[in-house]
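pinning this so it doesn't scroll away 📌
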Amino acid sequence: MEKRKLKKGKLGNYIVLGLLICGFAQVAVVNVSAGNYADERYTFSFGNEGDWSTTHERIKEDNTSVYMKCVSSDLVSNAYDAYAWGYDEDTNNYFCSSDKYTFSEGDIKKMTNYIYENGGEWALIRANLNEGSGYTTGTFTGLWSPDSI
């Protein structure tokens, strides 16, 4: 009689252990998913030296990098400098939250930033023409997202 009770107790322990493992696996899968990572088109047009161009604001859902891909440029050796900016609705404040990233046609970069960590609910990219490119005007198109995978 005692052997049967012992076996039933072990079986119960294995069932509980299996359920715990399944529960932890589901939590791990949920935490891995990224937020607002769908690519969206942008166009930057610079008409005069010193002009700034921006994407529109998008919701920033996590602390991942901002993603940017420069698809085309009207001039082959032209480049622009981009910065990830955040917007905090509570304080109605825009703030720069990254180092400078230089893009030319074909460049793909994940821009490290601290928008989410500094209370920014929205992200955007501000850019100006790269002074070293030698041009004073230019048009660029590409894709970007406020979060990345």
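📌 and the second one:
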Amino acid sequence: MLQEEPIAETENPKMEGYTSLRNRLLPSILEILSFNKHHPYPQNLYEVDDVVVLDSQSETRARSIRRLALVQCHSRANFNEIKAAFLSILENMELKAEIIPTGWDCFIEGRRFTAMADGEPLCWAGEIRPEVLNAWGIEMPVAAIEFDVELLHKNVKH
């Protein structure tokens, strides 16, 4: 599961189901996979959208960040496959990053990493833990990665 952390909440929402703003894209894609079980595999999905993170330095105490999430869902989805996608993106964009063998709790220990660029987290990746997949009712392995698009762009050699 993802570690609980404070998130941005809305005041006076128009709809009761929309009281908070998402701080990660990955849960939304896992939800889509849970609805797509009747479709054939492999299922490789991506989403590019804004998330909202708390920021005590901002006037509103929150700021939007553009993120890119990719998931690979099929019987042989694994850490090596998502890491290869990550390395391919870095190579094609001529970027360098330090890979740290740690990351979000939703990823399997030893099969996850955080990539750092200029001392900031560029992405989080790994194989999704079986208990997370079970919680979503997903029956196939899932490997995933979520990038900070703004940091990707900032580090591209122009």
